[in-house]
Specification:
By secondary structure, this protein is of the alpha+beta class. The radius of gyration is 13 Å and the shape is globular. It has two helices and four strands, in the order βαβαββ. The chain has one domain: Gcn5-related N-acetyltransferase (GNAT) (Aminopeptidase, 3-Layer(aba) Sandwich).
């Protein structure tokens, strides 16, 4: 992730993985909810960024349910998305 995509007071979820055995158990949703709530408590936190691979099997729908929207940026083949905090 290049520093020119995010501003100083913004936060970026670099990697988020749930083991195959635990997928579809709501652990991912719960973890992202906790992360969002925590980042909102940080000083001057305005936006939270994530990146993901698009297409079939991608995580776009998962992140959109939390309010993340694609920025139009792609880095290393991953779509960059952000949400306003």
């Amino acid at each position: 992730m290049t520093s020119d995509i995010i501003k100083k007071a913004d936060y970026f979820l670099l990697r988020f993985m749930i083991g195959a055995r635990y997928q579809r158990s709501n652990f991912g949703r719960q973890a992202i909810d906790l992360l969002i709530n925590h980042v909102r408590t940080r000083p001057n936190a305005e936006e939270l960024y994530v990146s993901y691979h698009g297409g079939e099997g991608g995580r776009e729908g998962f992140y959109q349910r939390f309010g993340f929207e694609p920025t139009g940026e792609v880095e290393n083949g991953e779509i960059i998305a952000k949400m306003k905090l």
